[in-house]
């Protein structure tokens, strides 16, 4: 039998109790770093695929019956090592007259400030030819020779760490986006 004072001084098993307190937070931190590394990897794959797709797209080259969007999907699948689902990619290809027009609204005639409504040619200049006023002048096509084309590729990454979900996620999803703007060659 031990005396009561010697029981209070006994430190056997203290390491297990300390680890039980610190261990879950440490494990969550390590898993969070791993997920952050995966997000950086996915971002690099999207950047590479967008750059390759835009470089090929600006020459007007297509392989067989493959359009530019399908080519970018194939490049993302190749560069990510099959880690991503190409069907979940959101790809937007918009063409403009110049780099200065990217993200600009269509010019208003009457009233002189955006947003405009009414008849194209009377109330606003219909730059992209879709018949309605848009806050972005981009036409939804890959453009012709000399056109400026904006390629936007995004992927909804489902976060698996609760810590990361509260820090950077929106409902457990973090959208990873890559953008490339190029001028088409004279093809």
What can you tell me about this protein's structure?
With 187 residues, the protein is α+β, with helices and mostly antiparallel strands. The protein has one domain (14-103, 138-183). It is built from four helices and three strands; from the N terminus they run H-H-H-E-E-H-E. It has a three-stranded antiparallel beta sheet, with helices on one face. Helix 2 packs antiparallel against helix 3 (68-79). The protein starts with a helix and ends with a strand.
- Summed up, the helix count is 4
Percentage of residues in DSSP E strands: 15-25%
The number of domains:
1
Largest sheet: 3 strands, antiparallel
Adjacency order of strands in the biggest sheet: 1-2-3
Structural class: alpha+beta
Ranges with pLDDT <50 over ≥5 residues? Answer: none
Give average pLDDT, whole number: 84
Shape category: elongated
Order of helices and strands: HHHEEHE
Strand runs, count: 3
Q: Roughly what percent helix?
A: 25-40%
Straight-line N-to-C gap: 94 Å
Q: Gyration radius, to the nearest Å?
A: 27 Å
């Amino acid at each position: 039998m031990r005396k009561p004072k010697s029981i209070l001084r006994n430190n056997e098993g203290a390491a297990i109790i300390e680890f039980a307190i610190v261990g879950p937070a440490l494990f969550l931190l390590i898993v969070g770093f791993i997920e952050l590394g995966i997000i950086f990897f996915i971002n690099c794959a999207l950047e590479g695929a967008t750059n390759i797709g835009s470089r090929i797209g600006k020459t007007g080259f297509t392989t067989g019956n493959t359009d530019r969007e399908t080519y970018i999907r194939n490049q993302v699948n190749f560069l990510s090592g099959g880690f991503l689902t190409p069907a979940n990619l959101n790809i937007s290809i918009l063409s403009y007259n110049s780099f200065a027009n990217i993200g600009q609204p269509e010019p208003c005639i009457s009233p002189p400030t955006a947003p405009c409504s009414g008849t194209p040619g009377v109330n606003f200049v219909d730059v992209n030819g879709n018949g309605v006023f848009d806050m972005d002048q981009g036409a939804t096509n890959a453009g012709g020779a000399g056109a400026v084309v904006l390629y936007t590729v995004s992927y909804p990454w489902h976060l698996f760490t609760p810590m990361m979900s509260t820090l950077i996620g929106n409902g457990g999803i973090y959208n990873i986006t890559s953008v490339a703007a190029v001028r088409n060659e004279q093809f």
